[in-house]
Amino acid sequence: MTFCLHLPVWKAGVQAHLILQVASPREENLREINGVPSAPSRKFRWSAEHAIIRAMTAARKRSARKPLRRSRRDESGARFQDLSAALAEIGKSFYQRGWVFGTSGNLSAVVSERPLRLAITPTGLDKGALDAEQFLEIDEAARVVRGIGKPSAETGLHLAIVRARGAGAVLHTHSMWSTLLSDIFAVDGAVPLEGFEMLKGLSGVRTHEHREVLPIFENSQDIAQLAAQVEALLKRDPAVHGFLLRRHGLYTWGQDLAEAKRHVEVLEFLLEVFGRTRTGV
Q: Which superfamily, per CATH, for 72-279?
């Protein structure tokens, strides 16, 4: 059998000596190699072959234990793909619940904090038919750095929420009850939710006696101005878990995608219960 192995070169003569013993079965080649006298051929061949086998085995074990190194770019790409797939599934789930009909709603999650990168839905897509390949990655200035398309028109609101709250994900729905109540209570400036056990599903809430106040902003196509208003309020009131845009819908967020999804489910449930109680529907 012929072995071919490159061992660490401590002495060039020793390396050549070991390789030649295994590569050539002719005993006359073992008499003297690089000026080194040989031992009795059988013993010499046996010890050399086993030395190489042991070295090969040890090298394989070290290679198996050594973790694969991935660049930051590779890790960011993998995280973006994972988040995009998760966001696509959430979009389909929200559509089935009647919260993002048509092309309404938008979804995002933080891919990295430094530099800031978000995975976000492109504008004009049916959330019930989302595919992970459709998502875009944007930077802190809403510029697309991965993917093809135009990000959601409300990207500025997502970035404002991430900056103000350090959120890991931001989700926006257009449900019937969030739309109706944001209009009915616009004169009050907020929708008050209290006394419901479901409130305990919000981060940091420990009792049904909690009073959650959802601020209402006038809807606007000037997203930069609206984002500035939202960011200022969120910095003033750290207890807020979401807000409403009048005749538009709900925005909420979470430390990660799972928490943001839970907040949507909790708040949409409470808005429907509150709305049905008030209207008798």
A: Class II aldolase/adducin N-terminal domain (3.40.225.10)
Tokens standing for residue 124: 């004009």
DSSP 15-66: HHHHHHHHH---GGGGSEETTEEP--HHHHHHHHHHHHHHHHHHHHHHHHHS
pLDDT at 171: 98
pLDDT band at residue 84 using 50, 70 and 90 as cut-offs: very high
Please state, as a whole number, how many other Cβ atoms lie within 10 Å of the Cβ of residue 231.
19
> How does strand 190-194 pair with strand 144-146?
unpaired
Residue 274: phi and psi, rounded to 5, are: -60, -45
CA distances from 221 to 153, 155, 156, 157, 172 (A): 9, 12, 11, 12, 16
The token pair at 154 is 């409300």
| Domain locations in the chain as residue ranges | 12-65, 72-279
Q: Quote the CA–CA distance of 75 and 138 in Å, as a whole number.
A: 16
Taking the model in full, what pTM does it have?
0.74
Residue 158: name the closest of 234, 73, 72 by CA: 234
